[in-house]
Design brief:
By secondary structure, the protein is an alpha+beta fold. The protein has 8 helices and 15 strands. A 6-stranded antiparallel sheet has the order 1-2-3-4-6-5, with helices on one face. Strands 13-14-15 form a 3-stranded antiparallel sheet, with no helix packed on it. The chain has a two-stranded antiparallel ribbon with strand order 7-10. Helix 3 crosses helix 7. The chain is elongated, with a radius of gyration of 29 Å.
Length: 307
């Protein structure tokens, strides 16, 4: 829950109305200037921007982030890297984080999940287009505005071609969302943000993923359960049928194909309707029936006719 700061406390002319969150880079408050809309005001910690060089890098980064034009991110509204208390103000997005949304409302499914994944990719594309990496994409940094995600908190973002902002030996990011190359000591890249995107999308379906990864086999969903979920994700009511295995005793399935241009080109999936002795062959007739030709019987039979 947001915590109320001391009464009358202001930063950069913004009255701090509530404490929204806290991280390694700073504390985020709900701030507001008289007559203006509320903002999310990140007050940066002194050791993050403790010298002129760090402040210059922050100023360049803010300048880059201000160029982003996307409603999928909480854009920068104001910033002062040079003040006694440096801060960055972004658009305040009311709503639950993805982390809290999944916990309270359940996993995203179907079209909502596909929409979420695409919108988050759109936000990330807009960030990368100005040469900036986010570096901390995770469920708590995604706010759900209705069914659409908004990417927030560019506290770890940096100009992509800039040196590292922090001292050697620091590892910036969140365990579980950091790309392996960062853990191996390599610099973050656009591909590192893509890795964090994938982990965040996976979190949106976290209950199913957690169940499937349970160390207790009895807690894991069955394959039919998984296929039902995947079917719903794809907009189907139920999974596609699985072809039955070939009968024992040297018989092969008899297949029927609808007579259409697609059937002629072999692009329509076959549906099992029975079986005939091997080595049976079929062909589609102009009236839509399927003729089964069996070398063993030396003749043919149209589908539906008695043997």
């Amino acid at each position: 829950m947001p915590q109320a700061p001391p009464p009358g406390l202001t930063v950069g002319g913004y009255r701090l109305r509530a404490r929204l969150g806290e991280g390694g880079m700073g504390v985020v408050h709900l701030g507001q200037r008289p007559g203006e809309r509320p903002v999310a005001l990140k007050v940066l910690r002194p050791h993050i921007v403790g010298d002129d060089e760090a402040r210059r890098r922050l100023a360049r980064e803010v300048s880059s982030l201000e160029r982003i034009r996307s409603h999928r991110i909480a854009e920068i509204i104001d910033a002062d890297p040079w003040g006694d208390i440096p801060y960055v103000a972004t658009r305040y997005v009311p709503g639950l984080s993805l982390h809290d949304h999944v916990r309270e409302e359940g996993a995203l499914r179907g079209d909502d999940l596909l929409w979420f994944a695409d919108c988050l990719a759109e936000a990330l594309t807009a960030v990368h287009q100005v040469g900036v990496l986010h570096r901390d994409i995770k469920p708590s940094n995604v706010i759900m505005e209705g069914r659409s995600p908004v990417l927030i908190d560019f506290g770890l973002a940096r100009v992509a071609d800039d040196p590292r902002l922090t001292m050697t030996g620091w590892l910036l990011g969140t365990p579980g969302y950091l790309a392996p190359e960062i853990l191996h000591g390599e610099d973050a890249t656009a591909a590192s943000d893509v890795h964090a995107w994938a982990a965040t999308v996976a979190f949106a379906v976290r209950p199913l993923v957690e169940r499937a990864l349970s160390p207790d086999p009895g807690e894991r969903p069955t394959l039919p359960d998984l296929r039902v979920w995947l079917a719903r994700l794809s907009g189907r009511r139920e999974p596609a049928p699985v072809p039955a295995p070939a009968p024992a005793g040297g018989t092969t399935p008899m297949l029927t194909l609808p007579y259409s241009a697609q059937a002629e080109e072999g692009r329509v999936a076959a549906t099992e309707v029975g079986s005939v002795p091997a080595p049976g062959r079929t062909r589609v007739l102009p009236d839509g029936t399927t003729e089964v030709i069996s070398e063993e019987y030396g003749g043919s039979s149209a589908q539906g006719a008695p043997w």
